[in-house]
Amino acid sequence: MTHYEFTYPSVLNSECSMLRDLVGVLDEHSVTGFPKHSILVVISEAFTNALLHGNRLDPNKKIKIVIEINKSEMIADIIDEGQGGLRKIRKRPPSHQWAEGGRGIGIIGHYASSVDFAQTERGGLRVTIKFARRDKREYKKA
Amino acid sequence: MEIVMREEGAATILNLKGRLDLASGSGLKDEVKALLSKERTLLHLNLGEVDFINSSGLGVLVSIMKEVRLHKGRLTLSNLATYVEEIFEITQLSHIFEIYKTEAEALDSYESVKAE
Q1: Domain layout of chain A by residue ranges
Q2: Which of A2, A32, A130, B53 could form a disulfide with B20 if both were Cys (CB 3.0 to 4.6 A apart)?
Q3: What is the gyration radius of the CA atoms in chain B, in angstroms?
Q4: Which chain A residues are closer than 8 Å to B67 by Cβ?
């Protein structure tokens, strides 16, 4: 497994920096097409959750992303410094048709192989997401 | 996100380029609000060059749709990349948006509504 760690302040522009860093990792490991797009979308969803609901855009709080990647899978941890994140995730109501938010967890669930939520020692949220490197569509074709 | 606007009769076409997410979405909302305040209420968004959208971007589009409906207008979308189309399907937003394969098809639909 190759290991990467990135840390970002909780400001809106950090999403752009995070996506740029993530594209760099994926390009380095030749992840392209649907798998690349799926990973970018899923991690951006978890990152946005950490930014808005975890750290509440407090620039003094950080979001850490830890990535482990090899030829068969990628595991990403997205860790915030908020309070009571796990409770919030569990209580989040499902999105209704005209809601402007609340679709992120569904998107993560659709693309990721697995997703786990855990509370950190300091009360923040750690989201662990696993991806198979091979796209589901490629399995269907084989 | 880059936004290029042009008018085709009563409709205003916005060609979007780049990422539609939390950071870029507010610019698009502001552009649409400005158009609605000038009574340009028939809006078409060409997403052909949108290479990334997440739930925050979708939220922006839902918000725009609600604003357009409040102004008794119409919002159409076209040229969704396969990735983007899939996100609309997963979230079932494909049922509430009027989505066309091409911009020409969308504009034809405005013409046919006018002719009826």
Answers
A1: 2-141
A2: B53
A3: 13
A4: none
Q: Does B32 touch chain A (CB under 8 A)?
A: no
d(CA B22, CA A41): 12
Q: Which residue of B has its CA nearest to A42?
A: B54
Say if domain A2-141 classifies as CATH 3.90.1150.10.
Answer: no
Give the pLDDT mean for B78-103: 95
pTM: 0.89
Q: What is the ipTM, given to two decimal places?
A: 0.86
Domain ranges (residues) in chain B: 2-100
With 0-12 CB in 10 A as exposed, 13-18 as middle and 19+ as buried, what is B29? middle
Name the region of B16 (left: φ>0; alpha: ψ -120 to 50; beta: rest). Answer: beta
The CATH number assigned to the domain with range B2-100 reads 3.30.750.24
> Mapping DSSP to helix (H, G, I), strand (E, B) and coil, where does residue A73 land?
strand
Tokens of A121: 């020692």
